[in-house]
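Subject — a protein and its fold

Tokens — whole-number codes for backbone shape
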Amino acid sequence: MDAMSQNRNVPLCIDLDGTLIATDTLWEGLASVLIRRPWLFFAVIAWAISGKAVLKREIAARYVRTGAEWPYRSEVIERIRIARESGQPVWLVTGAAESTANIIAGHLGLFDRVLHSTDSENLTSRRKRERLLSLCGDGGFDYAGNSRDDLAVFDAARRAIVVAPDRAASRWARANEAEMLPLRKTSPLAILKSIRVHQWLKNILIAVPLVLNHEFADFNLLLAAVAAFFSFSFLASAVYVVNDISDLANDRLHPRKRLRPLAAGTVSIPVISATAAGLLLASIALASLLPPLFWGVLALYALITTVYTFVLKRKLLVDVFTLAGLYTVRIVAGAAATGVDPSFWLLAFSIFFFLSLALVKRYVELDELAEDPLSQLKGRSYVGSDKDMIGQAGIAAAFSAAMVLALYVDSEDVASMYSHPALLWPLCPLILYMLLRIWILARRSQMHEDPVVFIMRDWRSQVTTIAGAGLVLLATFQF
């Protein structure tokens, strides 16, 4: 019998979790369900006690995703296409719940048969092996899998294809000289991207009250500001993880967000969940070293960000005002940690400045929509026709920030704190230059990232910031 004829009789069996898709449907569904409905925690325990197959069914019933909302491995899909072109039947053989397996199989349209878990059978490891042996016989199937649970199935297969293996599967592949598809695995860099370490720079705002009140030479206050910085950063990273897990479906349909490690499946749900838990504990530990008022501000930040993740981000305009407010909360946190009172002018400037940047972010997202003025931004309450209004509001907020700064420079507070207050006046055009340039780039469709991150990476914005800091120093000291 030639190879092609033999292939027509021997199915290529494809595992789902970690093989066909770069995630685990159960872990992802479990995390998302508990984040959105934490009151189901004890129900989850009851389902798990009833058996893993029951747990999978119940989670799948509450975490319904279309076929397009999963991170497929293109290399595995190409292998399936090659097998089909050679006449080899292809089966999806998975431990996932029936609804999940059928939705994915229906979306791809590449499978001749689907085998999945039922209420009475969790189709993994030896149970999967026994099912395939009963249908195909020993060596009567090819199998593509990725994990320790697949070792028993590899042993019974005619040919094993090991995809993005864990340690156990990798050792088995080397020992048996099996074919491997060594795709991307979880890496420390991917974890750092998931917790968005680059966003920690936003928390430098915590030091602003200390600097503007000229208390930065006090070592104890400086130490308190550093502890507050890391406490806030760790908490923010944990919140980012929660937000990304809850928004996985939308992120995977977004042209850029689909490349985030969680959405792309390069970081597993268990790993990133454990990381977030560790960051949360570290944040609490650092906060315990600071005044009780800081605890209150930190709790307020956690509350607002949580409500934003599940409710406010979908509310028209409320979302951008919330984002602007969260930046101002960072300044308040710095004041609470160091005991330095923030001025009214600083808080007012912060609100308008960051409102303008938040509106830039929405403007860019609307600019990427289809030209249909009624097309809605995914997961938001904006439509295409809102773009001009958002742009006008954002530019108005930029001028308002400059106006507040001008009033501050002309105030008695500045006259009493600075030796040369007139040197602060150039800050107003510098702020306007920075913000209006960002808006011009946005109008040109050349702003493709978070505007705050853009400021941190853009050399012109960096030069503008350094020039502003230099003016503050010159205005402060006698010469």
Notes: The longest helix spans residues 219-246. The mean pLDDT is 87.
